[in-house]
């Protein structure tokens, strides 16, 4: 019995390693003339050899899923000891190290995610002495901290991974209220508590422009971006930042469902974003679904819209590699399940072959 179990295990392991087959056409190659195809990855996934093979085969852009978020890179003890109340110290953690090393060694460009966010940002970043208690700092002190945080983030990545290409960064993430209604209010965002207006957004982009490596495009990134009121909020702020010359693009997170929003409504928002003259990246695409054929058709239709607008879309990133790895548990949101192509993958691969060459001007 033991013998058969061991044999079954060996077949399972061998089977799995061969399952990540190279004869499944590569997404990144198929869409190469239109845009990069990206995925988010976790430190836990990237250390797996099979996952590495799969990622190298299909993707030419990577976003660390959680590993570059403020709570992952800010070092409280070091900030308290060396920060002089104004200099938050940044360290690349072990999980981020695995991802950035993989990207650096395989020449895969990275989308950084993220600098200014109301979530996954430690409360101590906003308090006197970088302590867990006591008063919140003034707007003036926070401004110096914001500049140093952004400066230290780019400098640390450059120091630890000199050969890494950071081609885009989400400078601000989800600064607007859930489904429209302007900026996320006081009480929901420590940034807003301290600043009271959009100055923290403007300053974050100014500092990012000052310290980001050459060629790194600066993005404002949000969800529910296809809801008209939210589209308008994003547009207003993005145009303001564009007029100051400190933003390059709008990130459409694109967490959608097979039932909502319609591709038409999505396209309306995309078109409005493109009309600003800014770039647009699809940054966190997934589609919750129970009917996988419906999902496949909608993915196909969505990709047709993206391909039609490819001249202003440098990359399209899925929020995960395979359904089992997604933050949406049980929602079948991606193109692969157990790293195997789903119907949605095959439908997406029917898009693009007869389309015009990318306008590279
Ligand atoms: O690392 C801890 C682990 O130590 C602990 O034992 C475990 C217990 O729950 O939690 C682990 O942390 C989790 C983390 O993911 C890493 O797996 C957090 O609980 C969990 O909340 C966190 O979820 C992430 C979420 O952002 C947090 O806001 C998801 O992985 C990540 O996919 C998701 O990504 C966001 C984008 O950043 C912004 N847009 C929306 C998108 C989806 O929510």
Topology, pairings included?
Blueprint: H1 2-19, H2 27-30, E1 36-41, H3 43-46, H4 49-58, E2 61-64, H5 70-73, H6 76-82, H7 94-106, E3 110-117, H8 139-160, E4 166-173, H9 190-195, H10 199-211, E5 217-222, H11 228-243, E6 249-252, E7 255-257, H12 263-274, E8 279-288, H13 292-308, E9 315-318, E10 336-337, E11 340-341, H14 343-348
Parallel strand pairs: 1-2, 1-9, 3-4, 4-5, 5-6, 6-8, 7-8, 8-9
Antiparallel strand pairs: 10-11
Bound molecules: ligand G3I.
Ligand G3I binds at residues 65-66, 119-120, 223, 253, 284, 327.
Q: Can you walk through the features of this model?
A:
The relative contact order is 0.12. Helix 8 packs parallel to helix 10 (199-211). By secondary structure, the chain is of the alpha/beta class. The termini are far apart. Strands 1, 2, 3, 4, 5, 6, 7, 8 and 9 form a nine-stranded parallel β-sheet that branches. 42% of the residues lie in helices and 16% in strands. It has 14 helices and eleven strands. It is globular, with a radius of gyration of 21 Å. Bound molecules: ligand G3I. Ligand G3I binds next to loops.
